[in-house]
Amino acid sequence: MSTFLGVPMRRSRDAESPIRGTETFPHAAKRAVNDTQLRRNLGRATATIRGKRQAVVDEMPDWEALRDSGSAIKAQVMADLPALLEQLEANVIARGGVVHWAVDAAEANRIVTQIVTATGADEVVKVKSMATQEIGLNEYLEEHGIAAVETDLAELIVQLGHDKPSHILVPAIHRGRAEVREIFLREMADAPEDLTDEPRMLAMAARTHLRRKFLSAKVAISGTNFAIADTGTLSVVESEGNGRMCLTLPETLITVMGIEKILPTFTDLEVFLQLLPRSSTGERMNPYTSLWTGVTPGDGPQEFHLILLDNGRTNALADEIGRAALHCIRCSACLNVCPVYERAGGHAYGSVYPGPIGAVLTPQLTGIHGHHDVNSTLPYASSLCGACFDACPVKIDIPSLLVELRGRAVDSDRGHGLPTGWDGAMKAAAWVMSDEKRFTNAQKGLAAGRLIARKGQITTLPFPLSAWTGSRNIPAPPTQTSRQWFAETHSATDAGKDRS
Amino acid sequence: MRIAVVATCLADSLFPEVVKATVGLLERLGHTVVFPQAQVCCGQMHVNTGYLKEALPVVRHHVDTFEAADFDVAVAPSGSCVGSIRHQQGMVARRGGDDALAERAEALASRTYELSELLVDVLGVTDVGAYFPHRVTYHPTCHSLRMLRVGDKPLQLLREVRGMDLVELPDADQCCGFGGTFALKNPDVSTAMLADKMSNVLSTKAEMCSAGDASCLMHIGGGLSRLKTGVRTVHLAQILASTTERAFV
Questions:
Q1: Minimum distance, in Å, between the CA of residue B68 and any CA atom of chain A
Q2: Do B13 and A443 touch (CB under 8 A)?
Q3: Which of B33, B190, B197, B231 to mutate to probe the A interface, most A CBs <10 Å?
Q4: For residue A452, with 0-12 CB atoms within 10 Å meaning exposed, 13-18 middle and 19 or more buried, which class applies?
Q5: pTM of the model as a whole
Q6: Taken in order A288, A294, A296, A302, is the CA torsion positive or negative?
Q7: What's the average pLDDT block by block, 10 residues per block, for chain B (249 residues)?
Q8: A-chain residues within 8 Å CB-CB of B52?
Q9: Closest by alpha carbon to B215, among B181, B164, B242, B241?
């Protein structure tokens, strides 16, 4: 029999990782909300992308039909995932590629490192990729003596700043241009001394820096936007062309993909290549779309490795409701329309997947291990306003998923340890609210609130209601409830007293 | 028509004037209003806080109460509560293993309406004969907008109100930051959202901010009162119920 010795220790499985931070969401968000510069940067940036997206979505007469198609294709993918993955594997191998299966981040990192080490390279160039962010690949490679150079401009800014991404599409959205200049001058050895914070000058400095890397790199690492099962084709959709450089110049290409990124047929791309750019960058079409199938002799990388990453995805897939989060195509439209993301910023979520989709995806990838797990606060990081659901190109009902995951967070605590304050309050409220006599008695108790009101308003309440009165008044309870008024002014029949 | 009023636990306890206005308006339009006295709550607070098991008896009590009452349609002066009745009660019952309750809840939900839906879609009126001599801006609440898709029905009703100066609210579709227990669990983000909503309300120079949900108005009004702005809140029902003879504020 074990003895309870106070505050439980954090379990080792709740260890910090790229998808689990060290602070609860409300705690981390408080700091972000108080950072006025960050609020301004985020407010301006998200409003701009929101406007661009809305314009290119509104001009599409068949946008809703496209969303339905995207949603249906993704539902089919989830239903057929094992067969589709084997089909993809067979086609990639038939075209000269090598396929690896990784159950978790550790295994994926190990496989990548082995491949790079075998080539003898000690530096790799990287295409912007959420999957490699999720497994912390750069840090792992660095520990093994391999330098990974991010070539997406915003990812480069994050990497040079020893920072973390705060947005899926625009990872450096929290940085202003003056900060970018400082980072370049401090961290980029070949940055010109007279570098200004003019966006064009900053881009030129990064361009010069990266060209050298592209021309010398022997190995590139990428993710993929869509993997096509029936042809074995991989794809990267981007704006800068730096991804194209990585995908074509080096001798070896390693692609890490989450297993949900698959599409059944080549023609399915037609739907997603319309949905993705309009939802993410607010463009009708992205500037660069690269497609490759295995190895083409004499053209591009002559060695191609595909790593199929699970890392918690099959847990989500096994969940009838939760699996919808795997439909996500990482467009980040939900981040840009989310009022919570706009104020809290991406870092508050403690995961490389922030915003509404992060709040439903992250806890499913890691699992929620009771209320001491910081990821248990993520499903609550939403006012359930529903803007994310409307913006999602594959119609993921994020608000309903959030509610479901809140239920799981509460259920994961049941029967373990002491009940929280919320448990007690909610159980008591349920008892009161499932019976009119108990409820009307509670309303009588509420009348005591009139004693502490001044000019009809209550301005301070004890903890935990102080969370409300910290910034908001609450009106004094009235002398008569509406049910009392109705009973007084209407016949017993209409007042529903005729049923005995 | 015989219309049952779903008072909502919040309006019943803290904002009875909203229920009085809803009843007054419907009676003025010639309908009989019934108030099932056993009613308490739709269960939304429990559901949205993750206590779905605890929500079950609350949902059952709601369904039992309204099933026993004699009415044609039910109305709530709240998009949020109707949203919960329509989209959550069945789910709560099914999750709790009570499919029969889920079906009963869904049948009841199919004849439960938010106020602007009832007026425009069911009763077919947009001019309810209201008179409200004030400068007012309107905040379309998230659940009315995105769960119920009421669209511009509340505005169709407000545009017909005599004497009223209706001014457009900038960034109207942005959430006010209430979100039920979100306001308590994430008070800093909630307050940051409220600050932007209040600044938009104040920019309209309106005397009052209106909405179809007492809960969102409690949040916006709580902030406006704390900052001593002098701007008040008024529920859609209170405007629509007001006439030259009687004001419901």
A1: 8
A2: yes
A3: B190
A4: exposed
A5: 0.95
A6: positive
A7: 98 98 98 97 98 98 98 98 98 97 98 98 98 98 98 98 98 97 98 98 98 98 98 98 97
A8: 407, 410
A9: B181
